[in-house]
Structures are given as structure tokens and as C-alpha cells.
Amino acid sequence: MSNVMEHDLAVDGRRDSDITKNLYLAFVVDDEQYAVEVSSIKEIIGVVPITIVPQTENYLKGIINLRGDIIPVIDVRSRFRKPEIPYDTETCIVVVLFEDYILGLIVDRIIGVYELSADMVAAPPNAKLSYSNQFVKNIGRKEDGVLLLLDLEKILFV
Amino acid sequence: MADFDRESMLEMFSYEMNQLVDQLEQIIIESESGFSMDIINEVFRIMHTIKGSAAMMLFDSIATATHAAEDLFFYLREENPTNINYSELTDYVLECMDFIKEELVKIEQGVPVDGDPQLVADHINGFLSRLKGEGDSVSSGAIAPVAASAVSDKAPVPAASGDRPFASRQYRAKVHFDEGAEMENIRAFTVVNNLKPYVVGIVTEPADLTNEETIPSIRRDGFTMSFSTNSEYGQVFDLLNRSVYVRDIFLEEYVKESIQMEGLNSFEIFLRFDEGAQMENVRAYTVINGLKPYADFMLHHPADLLGENAAEDVQKDGVYIDLVTSKSYDEVYDQLMQTIYLKELSMVDKYAAESPAQVVSIAEEVPVAMSNETIAIAQTNDAAATPANLSQNPVVPADNGDGAVDGGVAKRSTGQAVISVNVSRLDQLLKLMGELVIVETMVTQNPDLQGLTLENFNREVRQLKKIIKDVQEAVMAMRLVSLSGTFFKMNRIVRDMCKALNKEAVLEIIGENTEVDKNIIEHIGDPIMHIVRNSLDHGLESPEQRRAAGKPEKGRVILEARNAGSEVWIIIEDDGAGLNRDKILAKARNNGLLTKAENEYTDREIFQFIFMPGFSTNEVVTSYSGRGVGMDVVNKNLEFVGGSVVVDSVPGEGSVFTMKIPLTLAIIEGMIISVAGAKYTVPIVSIRDSFRPIPEDLFMDPNGNEMITVRGDHYNVVRLHEFFGLDCEPRDVTEGIMMIIENGDDAICLFVDDLIGEQQVVVKSIPKFIKKIRGISGCTLLGNGEISLILDVAGFFDR
Predict the structure, then answer these.
(1) pLDDT tens, B68-116?
(2) Would you say B678 and A52 are in contact if contact means Cβ atoms under 8 Å apart?
């Protein structure tokens, strides 16, 4: 876990579209491996106290204080309608930047950063067999399996 | 001058102009019934400042329009006529203001400032001359411009009429500027610009005033102008003296006596070149340059020989030269004859009356004689010249830097020493202030200090808290803007509309000193305006109708602002006909806007329809309303700042529009409460009382609404955890706290788990990803970094 964080911070430190191009941050949600482009990630933090905001969707867990900025957090498990589990030391909040929204995504654990060239990324099959499939934009191949590349826009706004 | 930043100067300029225009408009409207001498002086000063600044920035249209107005007020000030139609005067001045405003908008938008001031100037000048005509026929104030035709029209062939492009009097002036005036070339340019409407053929030395390299020489030696005009010496002197920073003026008129006394000759010369000579303007320029060394005074027409159409003009109409020189007739004549491609030359010695006019025609042209008398162009203007003006300013120095002084006076009279600060800096300051308040709490309530006896520390903490609070109040105050500016603008709207609609109305303004945040004020100006317009157009009846209804003929519109808890209410009340409930309902039905049975609609709900886009019950579209926009803007703008509007109306008695606008002060006094393990913040201003309830005071109404009796008053009870649907064990009432919270005149009882403490909190907005939640207005960070949601008290009331 800790070595992964360091690696990511290094990436964050030299944010540059050329450097981060084709880089994906992979994480686990309910035993499935997902990934988002590193270029859209602001930072990764451990779980911090979350303030509940009443009368919002269930998956919107509330808001957190990120060094003075107030950021809404979405539980990806809940968003994918998977059973929720208690947060533990492995649970992370991936802070992403989409258009001018900043949001936290709560994921089970981080795996690491992968470089996927264009030929390693393919469109998903058309048939949407499970609810969470609709959030998958593409499917990436790596040595030991596949990464489901998430469509942030769908996660945030569908 | 090198790093002369026009952009920032423009920003400053438009800021100042807007202020002056607003100030002026205010003064004018207030004094429509009559102008006191103080007001006239004030208006004159402001006009003068506007004109000076505009001319300085080379916005001629503004300068010209204001100039006319300035003349008018100059006359009023000097002559103090008694026969003024103030209403008419106000109209013209406002017209001028509107023109300036339009031009200012253009400047702000960066589009060419191309308005034509002529209409405005003509109106004002017309009014002025009527004023003079009706008054003392001898006195007349301003200098009438030289008939424009003499200047701009293509001069006719000289011989035919003997018409010349020059006016009757010839002047030479030398102007020095004050030390430290800076940008002397621009100032000189301004002087020339001021002069232009009244003179013909102005020639300056140095010639190109836009060139910054002329600054040292102008600073050292002044600059020289030659021109002709029909205006008298005193008037010309006055004109020159009006420019700011002028130190010395040397003005010389070439009259017959002085010319002859000094042994000079004055010639009028006309030249024309062969057809096909090409570059006639450059040829003329060469001729004139050749004469320059001997010329004491020289004018030529066209004045700008190097301009765009000069070649064509010279080819068609020739060149006129007015020359005063020590050389004899023959010497000049010989020199001119050497010009190549010369087709026609005529030369007249103006003051050698006995000598016959000599005309030479080099080509086959019929020789033409020029009259050797000076023909006064637009002589009538000259006759109108005033002795009052002549006696005005025989000597210079007294009026040094008069513009600068004027500017100062105008600013002082607003009663404020104001600087303009970029709003983003204020925002930054506010953000830092917020951080400071949080850190203060973190330090002073640090867990490490728990249980320690810290007498000295606590004393210093109190001091620190006090100072931080003072600083914070100062920061907040900086952002607050009084509504008075926005309110007083409505005077103008009421006045204009009354005139246009033939109605009579007074606008009463109450509470205009109420302050709201700068960000909010920008969004409420338009809503107020639209509602006031609506009241005048639809609300107030015509005087006849009012008389028939037994009301005073003069309608009344009240514009009031007042603080109500964490909101500011702006109330616009009229005593007109009121809203027609049935008509609005019918219209809503036609537009398919009804969502429930008609009889279920309350009056307020029905009146809300008037804020729908495209909703107008007015069949006739007037210049003010009827298109169904406007009221729509009210809603849109108010939603943007989180405000709302309600309408109450009684047929025949009038309507009341109440706009409720949140103060959204970025730092508020808050009471931290806990509910279901979470901490919420209630604005202290909304809390009337808090107490531990006795179960006997609680009761239910038939609909199952919980209520409580407190000292004989009954309140609805809102259990916060129920309201928010929070997941927790229900508490017994005896374990919780009741808070009476109020919103305007209403109050409810809020049931919470516990009170934690009072604290200043920095309001942060809920991230926009989360849509508006009823009952929550924002959030804040507590000392330990925890987030607390701030309750929107108003949200508990409108259910």
C-alpha cells in the first residue's frame, strides 16, 4: 500500500499530460479491478471523517475537508450497487478532477499505476449485463488480467 | 509615458466617469423642481471634469456632448436667468447623461466609441439660445461655433462668391503648461481639441502632437497655434484657459492696425494645380513649407494636407493660404510663381485697400478677381459675442490648474475618499480571514491545553480574539455596499416613465443605507428596476382613473430595504390598481401552467405566475413592458443569489412585492448544535430562545403536527433529525433542546439533541455537485477540522 502511494505522489508531482498519458491508476472495488486515467486524479488520501449531507443519494456519502476545500465523496461500491463494507486501513479516497468538479471516490484498495498503450485498450462489449457495466468506458489488458476503465462522467452524472 | 498603460487608464477612466455620471444624475433628478446656485456650480464642475477627462482620453463624442452642457451651466451660473423651464433643462441634461452612459458602455466593451454627440449638443445649444433669446438679448454666454459649412464643406471656386474657408479673425496663441503637468503633448492636443469646434484651419507647432518626442520642447517652450475664428479675443482666451494645467497663454490677434504698425503684410492666396499634376497635396505642402520661414502667421485650407483625401480636395478645390509676413507682395508673388504645375494663382493684399487685386491665371482660365475685403463668415455668430465674456479673464495665472481643483471638489462633495480595489483581492482577503478564524480556534481550543491553568495565556487569548474579530468586521465591512446607489437610480426610472406614460408618481425611499454584500448587489439592481417599472406601468392608474377611484392623483411607490434576520428584504409597494387575479389565472390556464385544481391555488401562488417567462397580461406592448420579459429576470436573478420574491395584492389598493435576499455574510456568528451525532450550525441572528422542553407543553393538532406552547404562544415543532431524515434513535423530548428560530415575522421551534457552543464560523458553499438542499445554506469548518452544515432557517418555513 505505502509503496503504491509514493509512486502515485511522484506521478502527481510531475503532472504533465505527456508523462501521464496512457497511465492508469488501478484499484479494487468488490474484487473487480477498475482504473481511471492518472491525468484526472488530483491525489489519493486515506479515509477521513465524512460529514453526512442529508437528503442526498445513498452513494453520496457526504463531504470531506481536504485542507480547507470541501469535497463531496462517492462510495464506488454503493454507486455500483455492490454490498457496502466497513472502511479499513486499505480503503482510499481517490480525489478526481472532472471538468470543474472535484470529487472523492471511495475504493476498497489501490493496486498501482499501469501504462496501457492504445492497442491495449478496447471498447467493452455492447451488452450491458450488470449495472456497473454502464460505467465502464473501455477495457484495458495487462499481463495478469483486465482493467475496467471507468467513465467518470457517467459515475458523476448518470 | 513610455509604459503608458491605456488599458488600466481606461478602466480608471470608466470607473470615475460612471461615478460622476451617477452623481450628476442624482443631483439633477433631485433638483428637477429648481436648481440652486450651489447645484448649478456643482453640475458645472462635474461636467467640466467629465469633459476634461474625456478629452484627455480622446473620447471626442463625450467631450463634445458635455461641452454643450457645460456651456449651458456656465450661462446659468454667470447670468442666473430666471426664466428657466427646469423640466426641459432636466430632460436635456439627462439626455446628455444617457449619451455619455452609452459611450461609456462602448468603452467598457472595447468597441469603437462612435456615438454622434451632435443631436445632444444641438438640443442643449438650442435650449441655451432659447434661454438667451427669452432673456436679456444683449447678454449671451457661450461662444457659438463657426458655421460648420465654412469648415467642412468643399469650398466653392473662389472667384464665384469670394467665399473663403477662413473666418474673420486671425489669431496666434502660445500656451505653456504648469510644471509637472506631464504628458504635455497630450495636454496640448486637448487644448487644440477644445478649440477645434470654434476655429478654422488650426496649425500647431510642433505639428504632430501625438508624438511623445515633442514633450520636452512643449515643456520648455510651450506650443504655438495659428487659427482663424469669428470669436472675439476674450472668448478665445477663455476657451484656451479652460484646459487643465495651462500656465500661460499668449494670444495675439492679427488686426489691420497691428499688422500695419509692425510693417507686415497680410495676403490671401489661392492656388490651383494643373490637372494631372498628381500628388497635389504634397505640392501644396511644399509651397507652404517654402513660405514658412517668412511667415508670422499662416493658415491654409485644407488644414490637413497629408490626410487621406487631401490630394483629391486640393486637386478639385485648390488651396487657400492666409499669410501674414514681413515680405512684400512682389517677393511672395515671385516665390509662388516658381511653383511647378501651377495652374492658377490669385493673391490679394488684404489691408492695402487701394491697391487693385491682382489675379494671375497661368492657364487659359478666365482671370478672377477676389474681393479685397475680408468677408466674414457666419458674422451673426460674431455679433452674438458677449461682453461679459470679454471682461472675464483678462489675465491668466489666477486660474491655474483649474480643472485639477475642480476634480478635487467634485470628489470631495461625494463625501467619500474612495479607492477602487479589485474584488478578487477582497475575496482573497476574506478567504485568509476565514483561515485565520479557524486556526485561532484550533490554537485556543487545542486539546493539549485541556486541564491546564493558564491565567496569562487566557488573558492574551481574549485580546487576540478581540483583535481578530475587529479585523474580521473590517474585512466584512469592506465588502458591504449600501443599497442607496441602486435605490436612487430608480428615481430616474420613475421620472422618465411618468413623463412617458403621463402618470404622476412619487418614489419614497426607505432604508437605503442597508448594506449587502457586493456580489449580491450586482444581481438585485435589475430585479428592483423591473418591479418598479411594472408598478408604474401596470400598477398605477392614470390621474383621471385615480381621481375617479377617489385616490390622490399622484401615485405613490415605496421602495424599502430592511434587515430581517439573515436576510435583507426589499419591498416595493405601490398604491395602484393591484393585480388582477382572474386575468392572471386565465392567462396561466391558457398557457397550460396550472398543475392543480384552480381553487387550490392561493393568491400568492397565482401571483407567482407573473414571474414566468413570456407571461404578460398586457395586450399592448409599450416601450416599457408587455413583452413578458423583465419579471422573468426578477426570478432568475434572485434564484442566482438564493433569494425569492412574493407578491401580495389587494384589488384597487395596490401591490406589495417582497424580495428576500440572503445576506450570505461569509463569516457569521453561529450556534453549534448536535443532532444524530452530527454537528450543525444555526445562525445566531435567527435564534430567539432555547430551552429544555417540558412534555406537558407539547401537543398535536388533528393533522398530526407537533406543537408547543411557550409563554402562551404556540409554535410548530420541527424535529431536525426527522426533517433531514437522519438515522438515529428517537430522543425523549426531555433529553433534547428546543430552539425558537425566527424568519422575518414567523417563528418555529426546532428540536435538537444538544447545544455545543457559540462560535464564529466561516461560511463555505456546499460543492456545486450537490444540488440545493432545503434547510441547508452552506457549511463551515470547526476548529478541529470537522465540517458542520449551516442551517438555512428560511428553509424550515416555506413548506
Answers:
(1) 888 888 888 777 777 777 788 888 888 888 888 888 888 888 778 788 8
(2) yes
Beta bridge partners of B715: B708
In B399-458, the residues whose Cβ lies within 8 Å of chain A are 435, 438
Q: What is the CATH number of domain B144-253?
A: 3.30.70.1110
Provide DSSP, B195-219: HGGGEEEEEEESS-TT-GGGHHHHH
State whether ipTM is beyond 0.85: no
Partner residue opposite B724 with nearest CB, options A54, A64, A102: A54
Q: How far apart are CA A89 and CA B703, in angstroms?
A: 49
**Per-domain residue ranges for chain B?**
6-142+397-412, 144-253, 263-356, 423-481, 483-662, 667-796
Q: What is the CA radius of gyration of chain B?
A: 37
A53 with B786: Cβ contact below 8 A: no
Alpha-carbon gap, residue B351 to B324, rounded angstroms? 11
What CATH number should be reported for the domain whose range is B263-356? 3.30.70.1110
Q: How far is A75 from chain B (nearest CA, A)?
A: 15
To the nearest whole angstrom, how far is the Cα of A143 from the nearest Cα of chain B?
37
Cell of B185: 503633448
Torsion of the alpha carbons at B458, B462, B463 and B466, rounded to the nearest 10: 160
Q: Is the CB of residue B725 less than 8 Å away from at least one CB of chain A?
A: yes
Q: Say yes or no: B770 contacts chain A, CB-CB below 8 A.
A: yes
Residue B570 — pLDDT band, cuts 50, 70, 90?
A: very high
B678 to A51: CB separation less than 8 angstroms, yes or no: yes
Residues of B in contact with A102 (CB under 8 A): 767
Question: What's the gap in Å between the CA of B786 and the closest CA on chain A?
Answer: 7
Q: Is B786 on the interface with A (CB under 8 A)?
A: yes
B326 grid coordinates: 514681413
- Look up the CATH architecture of domain B667-796: Beta Barrel (2.40)
Chain B residue with minimum CA distance to A49:
B786
Domain B483-662 belongs to what architecture? 2-Layer Sandwich (3.30)
Instruction: Write out the DSSP string of B274-298.
Output: PTT---HHHHHHHHHHHHGGGEEEE
What is the tens place of the pLDDT at every residue in B588-619? 888 888 877 888 888 888 888 888 777 765 65
Number of Cβ atoms within 10 Å of the Cβ of B596: 8
CB contact under 8 A, B767 and A70: yes
Q: Is residue B788 within 8 angstroms of chain A, CB to CB?
A: yes
From A101's Cα to the closest Cα of chain B, the distance in A is: 7
CATH topology of domain A2-157: OB fold (Dihydrolipoamide Acetyltransferase, E2P) (2.40.50)
